[in-house]
Amino acid sequence: MTSVQGARARARIEITAAIKDEARTQLAAEGAARLSLRAVARELGMVSSALYRYFPSRDDLLTALIVDAYDAVGAAAERADGAAGPDDPIGRWTAVCRAVRDWAVAHPHEYALIYGSPVPGYTAPQDTVGPASRVGLVLIAIARDALAADGIALPPLSPELRPEAERLAADVAPDLPPALAVTLVAAWSQLFGLVSFEVFGQFNRIVEDRDTFFTSAATRLAHEVGLLPRTKRPARTRTQPRTGRA
Amino acid sequence: MTSVQGARARARIEITAAIKDEARTQLAAEGAARLSLRAVARELGMVSSALYRYFPSRDDLLTALIVDAYDAVGAAAERADGAAGPDDPIGRWTAVCRAVRDWAVAHPHEYALIYGSPVPGYTAPQDTVGPASRVGLVLIAIARDALAADGIALPPLSPELRPEAERLAADVAPDLPPALAVTLVAAWSQLFGLVSFEVFGQFNRIVEDRDTFFTSAATRLAHEVGLLPRTKRPARTRTQPRTGRA
DNA sequence: GTCTATAACGAGATAGAC
DNA sequence: GTCTATCTCGTTATAGAC
Q: H helices within chain A, ranges in order?
């Protein structure tokens, strides 16, 4: 009986994956706003009502695609961080930035789904906030490790910004100095500004050698955050980025 | 006969404006991907075929909306720059950044149209590139004036980036040092990273006091570009941002 | 229990005849 | 410009296959 259950479960997983794959194809062709359950079903040789066994509504399918996309960039960022030398904060930082950009360039439509215009009529459920925070948590972990190993120069903090910095730090990274936490959030959004401009075509006829341009800008972001070229004494343990999911 | 022609021309302008207004309303409700000529016509009490007298296709209507949006942010940026003290590069820079952000927050759907995900199936014609460059040209003008008045410290330029920096500078700002030109382009995209994250909801539950946060980040961007708090001798003439349109 | 298929709803888009 | 016949869509109810 386990084999029957196993077979069913396997079939379910496969069909779910096929649905999402086909939906991703449609995403590329039509955009998220025009994602159609019926078209997905038609393309898979199913009838539209059958899809409801797998996704209770169109918005749930969208949510699954969004979560998958956030998880994919997040995993790419974590992998790049893990592959970089632990004692080299700037190396880790730029590796993560490049991983995010490479993923975005390779998956422009999924990138647009999560970092582009919001889908009209769709409101993201709570399920997306965990995956959405993975890239940010990697950046925070890099800063945390650098801090523990004297590999960071704290960025300046203006008095006007101090209250918000403290509030924000308490929320997203209670173990980091407020000045570092706000700067990280700003750098995080600026990183995606670079990526979005490239993916969305704003650099057309302006930036040619995008690779070099991006790497240079990412490195400058690392300096902006205060990361130093090399830690004086290596951090003993590398901080695992917390998943952010309950 | 001029009066008849004048009346006709006036009516045409009014109807064109009404069509665009209604289209903007639909943009907010349905998104650019679902902009429908028929729905616009219906709402205006016209028949869909009548719209083709004003816009030869859906894409042309979209283009008009895009050009209007770029012109609106561009004008806001130019106005803010003009209102700032000419001898204060950082003041001008942050004023322009704030103007862009304020416009974006006030017009999130038009902002999404020009700086969000590309509309599937739509390719921007040449008409959009002039208006699209207005904000960038304002930032360039600020840097140019600061340079002329000794109000800027040239940002560093890594050897790897030099070729691309020279290419890029020749294209977008031939009178600026390559190091400054690339840094400006990076800062330009990072500015829109900050704005997009706020408008698209990525700062939800993360940044609370968005005003202070943004102003602080914009000021740091100004420093990043090399702008100095005050020019030693005031620039005699303020550079007009070139319109970029032929 | 788990799935798929049929049929239908209300709403909207689309094409073409008039 | 109007009308109509025919599409699409998301979603549900129901019935039957495994």
A: 2-30, 37-44, 48-51, 58-83, 89-106, 108-115, 129-132, 134-148, 162-172, 178-199, 210-225
With contacts defined as CB-CB under 8 Å, which chain A residues touch B125? none
Per-residue pLDDT tens digits for B69-80:
999 999 999 999
What digits encode the pLDDT tens for the residues A173-208?
999 999 999 999 999 999 999 999 999 999 999 999
Å from B108 to nearest chain A CA?
A: 9
Structure tokens that stand for B177 in this block: 């040092």
Contacts of A170 (CB under 8 A, 6+ apart): none
For B209-217, what is the mean pLDDT? 98
Closest chain A C-alpha to B10 CA, distance in angstroms: 35
User: In which residue ranges of chain A is pLDDT below 50?
Assistant: 1, 245-246
Q: Is the pTM of this model over 0.70?
A: yes
**Set of chain A residues whose Cβ sits within 8 Å of the Cβ of B164:** 207-209, 212-213
* Contact (CB<8Å) A220/B117: no
Q: Diameter of chain A by CA atoms? A: 67
Give all domains of chain B, ordered by start, each with its CATH number. Answer: 1-56 (1.10.10), 59-246 (1.10.357.10)
With contact defined as beta carbons under 8 Å apart, do A155 and A224 qualify?
yes
| Distance between the alpha carbon (CA) of B38 and the C1' atom of C15, Å | 13
User: Which chain A residue is nearest to residue B184, measuring alpha carbons?
Assistant: A217
pLDDT at A117: 97
Nearest-Cα residue of chain A relative to residue B204: A129
Q: Which residues touch strand C (CB under 7 A)?
A: A 8, 11-12, 15, 46-50, 53-54; B 36-39, 42
